[in-house]
Records
---
Amino acid sequence: MASSHRLRVMTYNVKGLQVSRPDAVAVVRAAAPDVLGVQEPTRGLLGWWRMWLFARAVGMRAVVNGRGARTTALLVAPGRAVTAHSAVRLPNLSGRTRRGAAVATVDGIRFVVVHLSLVRDERAAHLADLLAHHVPTTRTVVLGDLNEAPGGPTWASLTRLLTDADPTGGPTFPAVEPKQRIDAILTTRDLTAGSPRVLSDPSALRGSDHRPLLVDLYLPGAS
């Protein structure tokens, strides 16, 4: 008899927890994701430690944090099996922010957390590298801050291979009076995403300059 395995997945640009850490914590705790892709995690000499403390505060563990992941991190809820994880360094082509990606396999599904460049050519180069080497054609989720609105070349490249989990979703940036949908969760065709929602409660408006996106992900399987 067929059954479904559900994972609650969230992407959230926390802006270094510089806007309101208590509200960012409240947002994540209320949403209770199984997998949280973070963009703009805390950085600097003790950035990894501050992100570890944030993970503990929201009841999760940081499985990719710091090092080559740079502008991303990946947190996982207790009870979820992590069988592989890595921090992927991306080349600095623009001379601006040095970027990376967080990659982990959670309950048999690969998650690739991205925070793509503001510079179009660099964004394209990083995306091409990630799609070629880190995004398989099955059981994979790409989530994060694309720094581009739907209709642009980044979205076109991603949606040739993946399905947008929230194609009619509302804007995510800025958090107050948002105008652009630049945060996304995309899945391979063998996964089904349901109940997408851009969070807009008071804590979400105060916690960062982005609104988080949350979806329930289903993996069909045999019971």
---
Amino acid sequence: MNRLFKLVSHFGLIILTAMIVVGPVYAERLKDLATIQGVRSNQLIGYGLVVGLEGTGDQTTQTPFTLQTTISMLQSMGITLPPGTNMMMQLKNIAAVMVTTTLPPFAQIGQTLDVTVSSMANAKSIKGGTLLMTPLKGADGQNYAIAQGNLVVAGAGASANGSSTTINQLSVGRISAGATVERVIPNNLTQLSTISLELKDSDFSTASLVAKEINRSFGQDIAFAQDGRVIHVRPNNADGNRVAFLAALESINVNPGKGAAKVILNARTGSIVLNQTVTLENCAVAHGNLSVVIGTAPVVSQPNAFASGRTVESKVSQISINQDPGNVIQLGAGTSLSDVVRGLNAIGATPQDLLAILQAIKAAGSLRADLEII
């Protein structure tokens, strides 16, 4: 379990460090570690019109596609405009929009989906508008859903003394249950002879442990790891109830392998998070008037004259951080990154100082962890 050090503030600098304390390992459900291959969502998109706006729609003289779409919609309903009237139309109550949603796995015909409607031209607001029937297509170009309904836009406006203020974005809205599924995506999961699990994070240790735990839980060798991400499982339920088998498979508890050490540094605030104890090798870094020296000192342990033991020589890790000749901080044994961060914070290092020093330590090969800058 992780335990965060207390937040230290010095000269306006806030540093957040994490100290990892060795504790009991807790198992996680397999459904939290892996997904079933083929069980996935699909993105849908469509182009349509929003009508009923209060003069805040597209300026059709600058957005000809809005006018063209409106004319095509009218013609599809049997309305033919007189020749020469196209250029005279000023449709301030209409806006061209893109409609997006996500089709979940195993979605059935008639199921409703929430949709997001976004203006794609120069409409000032689509608040209060109504989306006309819009087909939603998948990546294969097929229509999988139809969207229509009244928009709800999260935003508010106020005006006083001739000035106006708008809060939030008024060109994007949502329609709850605004789309109806009209086509399903075939899924042959129940007919597959082998089910493939995909770990959310590739790790050979975790993949091996997952396969081992599945085999132990079902009492026979039905799972094997293909690589650090994919585990193949052969269902062994005699009754053929694949849903019950998958439910039992997802409920298996697995102790995942220990991940790689990672250090995450926020370059703006100087916050540092460690996912485990990170130790440093010998190195020396000079940065401006700061210097960091990480090394080892010999320590001799000699028994007294009447003891039966023998003399042992070992090395103890030490860290020295100084800002000037009169300001030297000597940290005790245990060369850990958290000690370095606390020492630098104590003498008022800035976030940019931390970033430069950690990058230098990483480049020198002394930091045995992944350094991620956000």
---
Amino acid sequence: MAENPSAPLQDQVAAMLAAAADGVLPAIVQAGHPALRTPAARWTCQLEPAQLTELIDLLRRCMHAAPGVGLAAPQLGISLQLAVLEDRHLIEPEAATLRERTELEFFAVLNPRYEALGPEMAEFYEGCLSVDGWQAVVPRHRAVGLHFESPDGVAQYREFSGWPARIVQHETDHLAGELYLDKAILRSLASNAEYAARWAEPGIGLAQRGLGF
């Protein structure tokens, strides 16, 4: 009998879903975990449709509980090109305007890849649920086009700009084994406490002057 190469993934997901059904949400893995540094496996229908739906729901629950605006499967230790995104957090109007932060309705992506739409970049502080307690300034494409598959197997293309484009890039990078620190201006790195006490503003001018970047 031939081996099923998807069996280990199916078993891992089944165990995680069973624990979640008993009220135990999986921990979000932290920097240093190999799942965050290994390119995730492409989605090739390794899971049954119902199991995929449950996994997407679990990712969304973990994202909300953290709380965050995106979560990729490798952040739960699952090597699969799957991520969920959603941003409905309210922030001050000045910050929302400067950062071009608009509401991002929930959606899930499989096998995503993005491309820059123009040369314009944007630099803002960014954090990650897998680098808990820290933030750094990351230059990102201001606008991107995202190619992906929806959970029902349909090829999709959407364009994003501003803060939603930042979320798209951050989560897609996770699936390539990349963390935001790989693209960050490291002199800007600040603990959450130091950021809140010294550098919290809509832009990054205070931090640029104070930290020298």
